[in-house]
Amino acid sequence: MARYRLTPWWARVLLIWALSRVVTTTLVLVLARVQGPNAWTGASPSYVDFANMWDGRWYNIVALYGYPSVLPLTDAGQIGENAWAFMPGYPVVARLLMVVSGQEWAPVAVFVSVAFSLATALMFYRLMNRVLDSSTALFSVVLFCVAPLSPLLQFGYAESMYLFFLTLALYLLLERRYALLFPVIAVMALTRPSGLAFALAMSLHVIYRFVTRAKDPFPMRERVLAASVAVYSGVMGLAWPIAAWIATGSITAYTDTELSWRAPYVGYQELVPFVAWFQSGTWWLGATGGPVVVVALIIAFALFLFTPAVRRLGGDLRFWAASYALYLLAVFFPQSSTFRLLMPLFPLLGAVAVPRHPLYRIGVVLLCIAGQWGWLLICWGVDGQDWTPP
Prior knowledge:
This is Membrane protein. The protein is mostly helical. The protein has one domain. The longest helix is centred in the middle third of the chain and has 29 residues. It has 19 helices and no strands.
């Protein structure tokens, strides 16, 4: 026990991360062994091939060939699925390592994701330790490492890299080191769509600090700097759609590309904010039950943000959770990839980590590991004409 207390925090996090990767890798290998032939691999693929299915192929295309200047069209004349839906941050890093190492995409993509998953775990502890005691912060890391979607942290997806820069950005926000947020937001917003959500969170942060300036001074220099970060994040949130417009000549190139992924559900439609969740609810549950469930989910999430456990995380992390949830509500069409799109809400794991009873913590960990297996079976493994993309 004395030796454990003397162990530095980073070593504890490293051990948690390593053990969790052993568990997750074992589950992945078991499923890969029984995986049949599919659009991406043959039967019983190797780990790195199995880890680069689904959108991993799109990131591979971006790394090798970049983005099309002419948008592909379907037989009906609509914009089809294409690489503009996948931002350049992750494939650019992987491409650079491919050039330096001489390795092919698959092992490099996995390496980048695994490396960023460790960096995120370390950074997440620092973030949680700003608002929670060290023991609870460490258990938050456990939950992050064994979460049902944690296999993605070692697949050829951008999530690991994105979550690292998001965690770093939130940590810098809590530290009020606004100037350092500019480069972090730039990389983050070009890795996964998040600039607009972070701009809203920054705006709420500025408003809150201004309203409470009597008890928490908010000097003019910090006001200008924080407000500038909010504006800058909003600009970065629009940077990729503007880049797609410039490259293709179509002002709606990015949104049309994103909308092509929901076309199998509701057909080709224009983007109307705050409508997609109700469309999805109707598609999945019918015209009566669907909207009712969506409204219930919105209310439940709003109430959850005001529970004592979540309030312990502080205002800024709650601002981020609310902002990102609002962003998803505005633009995302829920289907099987909803679980992946919810990953940026992972700071809320700090609230789940608050109860200290050993049976509770053991039970939550076991449920998370069972959730990994369930997610791998339902969303990652391919069984015939699979319609549950991760």
